[in-house]
Amino acid sequence: MAVKKKEEDLKDVKHFIFDLDGTVWHWNRLIPGVKQTIRRLEAKGKNIYFLTNNSILTRKEFAEKLSDLGLKTEVDNVLCTSYATAQVFADRNIDEAYVIGEKGLLDELGREHITKSEDADHVIVGVDRNFSYWKMAKAAEAIRYGAKLWTTAYGENFRAGDRMLPGTGAILESVKRAAETEEAELVGKPSDHMVKIIKDEFPIFRERTALIGDHIHTDVVTGNKMGIKTGLVLGGTSKKEDLRDIENIEKPNFVFKDFKRILKKV
Ligand SMILES: [Mg+2]
Q1: Would you say residue 165 has pLDDT above 70?
Q2: How far away, in angstroms, is 20 Cα from ligand 1 center?
Q3: Among candidates 47, 33, 80, 40, which has minimal Cα distance to 203?
Q4: Domain for residue 78, yes or no?
Q5: CA pair distance 170, 168, nearest whole angstrom
Q6: Which residue of 6, 73, 194, 205 sits 20 to 30 Å from the alpha carbon of 176, by its own alpha carbon?
Q7: Are residues 37 and 115 in the same domain?
C-alpha cells in the first residue's frame, strides 16, 4: 500500500539564517515582503541571523544597516566576509595583506592588527567600488612575487536598487588574468573557512536551524555541508531551471517562490 510521504516543514526550526544580497535586500532597500515575514517569524519566537558574502561593511555596520532598514539586528546575529577574512588571517598569524576592498574589510582586518601592505605575502580581493587599473597591477605584481591570492567571494554581480553592480568575482577574475594564475582561496560561503565560523558563532542544530538564500552554490551548499535545513528563494541569483541535474549537496529541502512563502512552512 502506498504511504503518503509526510510533507516536510519548518515548524521545529528555531533559528533562521538568511542570506542578504538577493534574498533580504537589494543592498539599499529591502525586498518586498521581507520585513513583514521576518516580523512574523520573530512573533512566533524564531531567532533571526544574517549571513553574507558581502565585504563592503564591518559586521557591526551590517547590523546597523539592517536596523536602519527596519530589521532590528544585533552585531552577534550577522556574519559577513570582511569579519570572516580577519578571523581566517588572524588564525594563520597573517599580519600583512595587500587588500582590494572597501573600508569595512580594512576595518575588520585592522581590528585583528592586520595591516595593508603592497609587498605582503597575501592578497585579498573583496568588493571594491573604487577598484582601479593600478590596484589590479599591484595585486598581480604581489602574486607574481609569490603572494597567495584569497577572495571573499566568487559572485559576479549583485543588485543595488535597480542596478546590477560587479561583484567580487568580477574583480577577482581580472586580478587572476593579470597575474596569470588560476588559484584563489575562498573565504566566504561555501568554503570550509566560512562553515567553521558559522558553526563557532551561530546556533547550528540539525533539526532546529535553517539556512535560506537565493544561491544554490553558496547558500544551499553551505547549509547542506553543515547538515541543517536549507531553502532556496527564487527571484535572486539561482533560477528554477538551475535545480535540474544537480548534485545532492546542492539540493535544497525547500524552494520558495518568494520570501513570504516561508511563512507557509512554519
Ligand atoms: Mg545572495
Answers
A1: yes
A2: 6
A3: 47
A4: no
A5: 5
A6: 194
A7: no
